[in-house]
Amino acid sequence: MKFNTKTRYGLRAMVEIARETNNNGIFQKDISERQDISNKYLDHIIYALKVAGLITNVKGKKSGYILTRPADQIRILDINNAFEPGICVIDCIERNYKCDRENTCSAKKFWSGLNNIIADYFQNNTLQDLLEQQMELEKKETANQ
Amino acid sequence: MKFNTKTRYGLRAMVEIARETNNNGIFQKDISERQDISNKYLDHIIYALKVAGLITNVKGKKSGYILTRPADQIRILDINNAFEPGICVIDCIERNYKCDRENTCSAKKFWSGLNNIIADYFQNNTLQDLLEQQMELEKKETANQ
DNA sequence: ATTAATCCTATTGCAAAAGTAGTATAAAAT
DNA sequence: ATTTTATACTACTTTTGCAATAGGATTAAT
Known about the structure:
By secondary structure, chain A is mostly helical.
Protein backbone atom coordinates (compact mmCIF):
# COMPACT_ATOMS: atom_id res chain seq x y z
CA MET A 1 0.00 0.00 0.00
CA LYS A 2 2.00 2.90 -1.32
CA PHE A 3 1.03 6.18 -2.86
CA ASN A 4 2.37 6.70 -6.36
CA THR A 5 5.13 9.10 -7.27
CA LYS A 6 2.96 11.32 -9.40
CA THR A 7 0.77 12.32 -6.50
CA ARG A 8 3.82 12.67 -4.27
CA TYR A 9 5.74 14.82 -6.73
CA GLY A 10 2.55 16.69 -7.55
CA LEU A 11 2.17 17.75 -3.94
CA ARG A 12 5.72 19.02 -3.74
CA ALA A 13 5.40 20.84 -7.05
CA MET A 14 2.22 22.50 -5.89
CA VAL A 15 3.86 23.80 -2.74
CA GLU A 16 6.62 25.34 -4.87
CA ILE A 17 4.09 26.95 -7.18
CA ALA A 18 1.97 28.19 -4.28
CA ARG A 19 4.88 29.97 -2.66
CA GLU A 20 5.83 31.76 -5.87
CA THR A 21 2.33 32.64 -7.04
CA ASN A 22 2.55 36.16 -5.64
CA ASN A 23 6.00 36.54 -7.13
CA ASN A 24 5.48 36.05 -10.88
CA GLY A 25 5.31 32.27 -10.62
CA ILE A 26 7.96 29.62 -11.08
CA PHE A 27 9.39 27.75 -14.07
CA GLN A 28 9.05 24.01 -14.39
CA LYS A 29 12.80 23.67 -14.64
CA ASP A 30 13.23 25.54 -11.37
CA ILE A 31 10.79 23.22 -9.63
CA SER A 32 12.75 20.37 -11.12
CA GLU A 33 16.00 21.66 -9.64
CA ARG A 34 14.64 22.58 -6.24
CA GLN A 35 12.83 19.31 -5.78
CA ASP A 36 15.29 16.98 -7.50
CA ILE A 37 12.78 15.67 -9.97
CA SER A 38 13.82 14.96 -13.58
CA ASN A 39 12.52 17.82 -15.69
CA LYS A 40 11.26 15.38 -18.27
CA TYR A 41 9.25 13.44 -15.74
CA LEU A 42 7.98 16.61 -14.15
CA ASP A 43 6.50 17.36 -17.57
CA HIS A 44 3.77 14.83 -16.89
CA ILE A 45 3.10 16.13 -13.41
CA ILE A 46 2.77 19.75 -14.47
CA TYR A 47 0.71 18.80 -17.47
CA ALA A 48 -1.77 16.84 -15.35
CA LEU A 49 -2.02 19.67 -12.82
CA LYS A 50 -2.73 22.10 -15.63
CA VAL A 51 -5.36 19.87 -17.25
CA ALA A 52 -6.98 19.55 -13.82
CA GLY A 53 -7.23 23.33 -13.77
CA LEU A 54 -5.13 23.85 -10.67
CA ILE A 55 -2.31 25.84 -12.24
CA THR A 56 -1.74 28.08 -15.22
CA ASN A 57 0.96 30.06 -16.98
CA VAL A 58 -1.26 32.70 -18.43
CA LYS A 59 1.29 35.28 -19.44
CA GLY A 60 3.00 32.99 -21.91
CA LYS A 61 5.70 30.39 -21.85
CA LYS A 62 8.15 32.45 -19.93
CA SER A 63 5.96 33.63 -17.14
CA GLY A 64 6.19 30.70 -14.81
CA TYR A 65 3.37 28.74 -13.22
CA ILE A 66 0.90 30.14 -10.73
CA LEU A 67 -2.16 28.79 -8.96
CA THR A 68 -5.56 29.39 -10.57
CA ARG A 69 -7.19 29.99 -7.19
CA PRO A 70 -6.12 30.71 -3.62
CA ALA A 71 -4.22 27.94 -1.87
CA ASP A 72 -6.88 27.62 0.82
CA GLN A 73 -9.37 26.65 -1.86
CA ILE A 74 -7.24 23.82 -3.17
CA ARG A 75 -7.81 20.66 -1.21
CA ILE A 76 -5.16 17.95 -1.27
CA LEU A 77 -7.91 15.79 -2.70
CA ASP A 78 -7.99 18.06 -5.75
CA ILE A 79 -4.30 17.45 -6.29
CA ASN A 80 -4.70 13.72 -5.82
CA ASN A 81 -7.55 13.69 -8.30
CA ALA A 82 -5.37 15.28 -10.95
CA PHE A 83 -3.56 11.94 -11.06
CA GLU A 84 -6.08 9.40 -9.78
CA PRO A 85 -9.80 8.78 -10.28
CA GLY A 86 -10.25 9.37 -6.55
CA ILE A 87 -9.57 7.65 -3.26
CA CYS A 88 -10.29 3.92 -3.45
CA VAL A 89 -8.37 1.47 -1.27
CA ILE A 90 -10.12 -1.58 -2.72
CA ASP A 91 -12.13 -2.16 -5.89
CA CYS A 92 -15.26 -3.62 -4.31
CA ILE A 93 -16.26 -0.37 -2.64
CA GLU A 94 -16.76 1.38 -5.96
CA ARG A 95 -20.20 2.05 -7.35
CA ASN A 96 -21.36 -0.52 -9.88
CA TYR A 97 -19.00 -3.13 -8.55
CA LYS A 98 -20.87 -6.40 -8.47
CA CYS A 99 -20.23 -8.93 -5.71
CA ASP A 100 -22.53 -11.62 -4.37
CA ARG A 101 -21.17 -11.01 -0.90
CA GLU A 102 -21.66 -7.28 -0.89
CA ASN A 103 -24.46 -7.13 1.68
CA THR A 104 -22.96 -9.65 4.08
CA CYS A 105 -19.27 -8.84 4.08
CA SER A 106 -17.82 -7.34 7.23
CA ALA A 107 -14.51 -6.89 5.41
CA LYS A 108 -16.17 -4.55 2.94
CA LYS A 109 -17.46 -2.46 5.85
CA PHE A 110 -13.98 -2.30 7.27
CA TRP A 111 -12.43 -1.17 4.01
CA SER A 112 -15.05 1.42 3.26
CA GLY A 113 -14.57 2.81 6.75
CA LEU A 114 -10.89 3.14 6.00
CA ASN A 115 -11.59 4.74 2.67
CA ASN A 116 -13.74 7.36 4.40
CA ILE A 117 -11.10 8.44 6.86
CA ILE A 118 -8.52 8.74 4.13
CA ALA A 119 -10.88 10.71 1.92
CA ASP A 120 -11.69 12.99 4.87
CA TYR A 121 -8.02 13.63 5.50
CA PHE A 122 -7.56 14.58 1.85
CA GLN A 123 -10.61 16.82 1.96
CA ASN A 124 -9.74 18.59 5.16
CA ASN A 125 -6.17 19.44 4.30
CA THR A 126 -5.59 22.26 1.87
CA LEU A 127 -2.57 23.51 0.00
CA GLN A 128 -2.63 26.52 2.30
CA ASP A 129 -2.06 24.23 5.29
CA LEU A 130 0.97 22.73 3.59
CA LEU A 131 2.28 26.13 2.59
CA GLU A 132 2.06 27.49 6.13
CA GLN A 133 3.66 24.34 7.46
CA GLN A 134 6.39 24.72 4.88
CA MET A 135 7.18 28.30 5.88
CA GLU A 136 7.28 27.37 9.52
CA LEU A 137 9.66 24.46 8.93
CA GLU A 138 11.99 26.62 6.90
CA LYS A 139 12.02 29.36 9.50
CA LYS A 140 12.87 26.80 12.15
CA GLU A 141 15.65 25.34 10.00
CA THR A 142 17.19 28.75 9.36
CA ALA A 143 17.17 29.50 13.09
CA ASN A 144 19.10 26.28 13.70
CA GLN A 145 21.95 27.30 11.45
CA MET B 1 -3.30 3.39 -3.82
CA LYS B 2 -4.78 -0.06 -3.40
CA PHE B 3 -4.46 -2.65 -0.71
CA ASN B 4 -3.10 -5.96 -1.94
CA THR B 5 -5.16 -9.12 -2.28
CA LYS B 6 -3.23 -11.01 0.36
CA THR B 7 -4.29 -8.67 3.12
CA ARG B 8 -7.82 -8.55 1.72
CA TYR B 9 -8.16 -12.31 1.46
CA GLY B 10 -6.39 -12.68 4.77
CA LEU B 11 -9.06 -10.61 6.49
CA ARG B 12 -11.86 -12.65 5.01
CA ALA B 13 -10.13 -15.92 5.87
CA MET B 14 -9.65 -14.78 9.44
CA VAL B 15 -13.32 -14.00 9.86
CA GLU B 16 -14.16 -17.51 8.65
CA ILE B 17 -11.67 -19.04 11.05
CA ALA B 18 -12.87 -16.89 13.93
CA ARG B 19 -16.47 -17.98 13.52
CA GLU B 20 -15.53 -21.67 13.49
CA THR B 21 -12.95 -21.58 16.27
CA ASN B 22 -15.44 -22.77 18.89
CA ASN B 23 -16.65 -25.44 16.50
CA ASN B 24 -13.56 -27.56 15.77
CA GLY B 25 -12.13 -25.10 13.29
CA ILE B 26 -12.37 -24.93 9.52
CA PHE B 27 -10.41 -26.49 6.66
CA GLN B 28 -8.52 -24.38 4.18
CA LYS B 29 -10.48 -25.91 1.34
CA ASP B 30 -13.75 -24.90 2.98
CA ILE B 31 -12.56 -21.32 3.37
CA SER B 32 -11.58 -21.49 -0.27
CA GLU B 33 -15.09 -22.54 -1.28
CA ARG B 34 -16.97 -20.15 0.96
CA GLN B 35 -14.88 -17.17 -0.04
CA ASP B 36 -14.29 -18.00 -3.70
CA ILE B 37 -10.52 -17.94 -3.39
CA SER B 38 -8.41 -20.47 -5.30
CA ASN B 39 -7.28 -23.09 -2.82
CA LYS B 40 -3.78 -22.93 -4.19
CA TYR B 41 -3.53 -19.19 -3.67
CA LEU B 42 -5.13 -19.46 -0.26
CA ASP B 43 -2.16 -21.66 0.62
CA HIS B 44 0.03 -18.57 0.84
CA ILE B 45 -2.49 -16.67 2.89
CA ILE B 46 -2.99 -19.41 5.45
CA TYR B 47 0.71 -20.08 5.60
CA ALA B 48 1.52 -16.45 6.33
CA LEU B 49 -1.17 -16.25 8.98
CA LYS B 50 0.23 -19.34 10.63
CA VAL B 51 3.82 -18.09 10.52
CA ALA B 52 2.58 -14.87 12.09
CA GLY B 53 1.20 -16.94 14.95
CA LEU B 54 -2.43 -15.94 14.47
CA ILE B 55 -3.85 -19.35 13.63
CA THR B 56 -3.04 -22.98 14.25
CA ASN B 57 -4.27 -26.46 13.49
CA VAL B 58 -3.05 -27.96 16.71
CA LYS B 59 -4.75 -31.34 16.55
CA GLY B 60 -3.11 -32.32 13.27
CA LYS B 61 -3.79 -31.84 9.63
CA LYS B 62 -7.40 -32.88 9.76
CA SER B 63 -8.51 -30.74 12.62
CA GLY B 64 -9.18 -27.49 10.82
CA TYR B 65 -7.78 -24.05 11.63
CA ILE B 66 -8.57 -22.12 14.77
CA LEU B 67 -7.38 -18.85 16.25
CA THR B 68 -4.46 -18.94 18.67
CA ARG B 69 -6.01 -16.27 20.87
CA PRO B 70 -9.40 -14.61 21.34
CA ALA B 71 -10.65 -12.53 18.44
CA ASP B 72 -10.74 -9.38 20.54
CA GLN B 73 -7.01 -9.68 21.03
CA ILE B 74 -6.28 -9.81 17.33
CA ARG B 75 -6.01 -6.35 15.86
CA ILE B 76 -6.49 -5.87 12.14
CA LEU B 77 -2.98 -4.50 12.21
CA ASP B 78 -1.74 -7.95 13.28
CA ILE B 79 -3.37 -9.46 10.23
CA ASN B 80 -1.96 -6.79 7.96
CA ASN B 81 1.48 -7.37 9.39
CA ALA B 82 1.33 -11.05 8.51
CA PHE B 83 1.63 -9.90 4.90
CA GLU B 84 3.32 -6.51 5.07
CA PRO B 85 6.20 -5.01 7.06
CA GLY B 86 3.69 -2.52 8.51
CA ILE B 87 1.71 0.50 7.45
CA CYS B 88 3.77 2.79 5.25
CA VAL B 89 2.13 4.97 2.62
CA ILE B 90 5.42 6.42 1.36
CA ASP B 91 9.04 5.33 1.74
CA CYS B 92 10.46 8.55 3.14
CA ILE B 93 8.62 8.24 6.45
CA GLU B 94 10.49 5.08 7.37
CA ARG B 95 13.27 5.07 9.91
CA ASN B 96 16.73 5.24 8.39
CA TYR B 97 15.42 6.76 5.20
CA LYS B 98 17.84 9.46 4.19
CA CYS B 99 16.61 12.63 2.51
CA ASP B 100 18.16 16.08 2.44
CA ARG B 101 14.72 17.61 2.62
CA GLU B 102 13.53 15.64 5.60
CA ASN B 103 13.42 18.50 8.10
CA THR B 104 11.90 21.05 5.79
CA CYS B 105 9.33 19.10 3.83
CA SER B 106 5.70 19.87 4.49
CA ALA B 107 4.72 17.01 2.19
CA LYS B 108 6.46 14.56 4.49
CA LYS B 109 4.43 15.92 7.41
CA PHE B 110 1.27 15.43 5.42
CA TRP B 111 2.09 11.85 4.54
CA SER B 112 3.15 10.86 8.00
CA GLY B 113 -0.08 12.35 9.35
CA LEU B 114 -1.97 10.16 6.93
CA ASN B 115 0.08 7.16 7.92
CA ASN B 116 -0.83 7.73 11.54
CA ILE B 117 -4.56 7.80 11.02
CA ILE B 118 -4.41 4.64 8.94
CA ALA B 119 -2.26 2.88 11.53
CA ASP B 120 -4.69 3.97 14.25
CA TYR B 121 -7.62 2.56 12.34
CA PHE B 122 -5.80 -0.74 11.99
CA GLN B 123 -4.91 -0.73 15.67
CA ASN B 124 -8.34 0.14 16.95
CA ASN B 125 -10.28 -2.42 14.96
CA THR B 126 -10.09 -6.02 16.08
CA LEU B 127 -11.15 -9.29 14.53
CA GLN B 128 -13.90 -9.41 17.16
CA ASP B 129 -15.36 -6.20 15.73
CA LEU B 130 -15.46 -7.75 12.28
CA LEU B 131 -16.94 -10.97 13.59
CA GLU B 132 -19.77 -9.19 15.39
CA GLN B 133 -20.41 -7.06 12.34
CA GLN B 134 -20.46 -10.21 10.25
CA MET B 135 -23.05 -11.92 12.43
CA GLU B 136 -25.23 -8.86 12.41
CA LEU B 137 -25.12 -8.53 8.63
CA GLU B 138 -26.01 -12.17 8.15
CA LYS B 139 -28.92 -11.97 10.57
CA LYS B 140 -30.23 -8.95 8.72
CA GLU B 141 -29.86 -10.72 5.37
CA THR B 142 -31.70 -13.80 6.60
CA ALA B 143 -34.54 -11.61 7.85
CA ASN B 144 -34.85 -10.06 4.41
CA GLN B 145 -35.49 -13.39 2.75
C1' DA C 1 0.11 -48.43 1.82
C1' DT C 2 -3.00 -45.05 0.41
C1' DT C 3 -5.29 -40.91 0.71
C1' DA C 4 -6.23 -36.24 1.93
C1' DA C 5 -4.82 -32.33 3.53
C1' DT C 6 -1.22 -29.03 4.60
C1' DC C 7 3.69 -27.25 4.09
C1' DC C 8 6.94 -24.68 1.66
C1' DT C 9 9.80 -22.96 -2.28
C1' DA C 10 10.23 -21.72 -6.88
C1' DT C 11 8.59 -19.88 -10.88
C1' DT C 12 5.67 -17.58 -14.32
C1' DG C 13 2.67 -14.15 -16.15
C1' DC C 14 1.01 -9.77 -16.34
C1' DA C 15 -0.35 -5.07 -15.60
C1' DA C 16 0.62 -0.79 -14.01
C1' DA C 17 3.92 2.46 -12.60
C1' DA C 18 8.12 5.03 -13.51
C1' DG C 19 10.70 7.24 -16.48
C1' DT C 20 12.69 8.63 -21.28
C1' DA C 21 12.37 10.30 -26.10
C1' DG C 22 10.97 13.15 -29.55
C1' DT C 23 8.40 16.30 -32.14
C1' DA C 24 5.39 20.35 -32.19
C1' DT C 25 4.43 24.83 -30.77
C1' DA C 26 4.56 29.36 -29.03
C1' DA C 27 6.47 33.44 -26.97
C1' DA C 28 10.33 36.27 -26.42
C1' DA C 29 15.00 37.85 -27.35
C1' DT C 30 18.20 39.15 -30.63
C1' DA D 1 12.84 37.20 -39.31
C1' DT D 2 15.37 33.91 -37.05
C1' DT D 3 17.01 31.86 -33.10
C1' DT D 4 16.38 30.49 -28.54
C1' DT D 5 14.05 28.70 -24.66
C1' DA D 6 10.51 26.69 -22.40
C1' DT D 7 6.26 24.23 -22.47
C1' DA D 8 2.71 20.85 -24.82
C1' DC D 9 1.58 16.53 -25.93
C1' DT D 10 2.03 11.64 -27.48
C1' DA D 11 4.46 7.54 -27.80
C1' DC D 12 7.42 4.39 -26.19
C1' DT D 13 10.55 1.65 -23.08
C1' DT D 14 11.86 -0.14 -18.89
C1' DT D 15 11.19 -1.71 -14.38
C1' DT D 16 8.90 -3.51 -10.65
C1' DG D 17 6.00 -5.88 -7.76
C1' DC D 18 1.73 -8.35 -7.37
C1' DA D 19 -1.16 -12.26 -8.39
C1' DA D 20 -1.36 -16.71 -9.31
C1' DT D 21 0.19 -21.45 -10.51
C1' DA D 22 3.23 -25.52 -10.11
C1' DG D 23 5.05 -29.18 -7.77
C1' DG D 24 7.30 -31.90 -4.56
C1' DA D 25 7.65 -32.83 0.57
C1' DT D 26 5.40 -33.87 4.68
C1' DT D 27 2.15 -35.44 8.02
C1' DA D 28 -1.60 -37.92 10.03
C1' DA D 29 -5.61 -40.57 9.58
C1' DT D 30 -7.89 -44.42 7.13
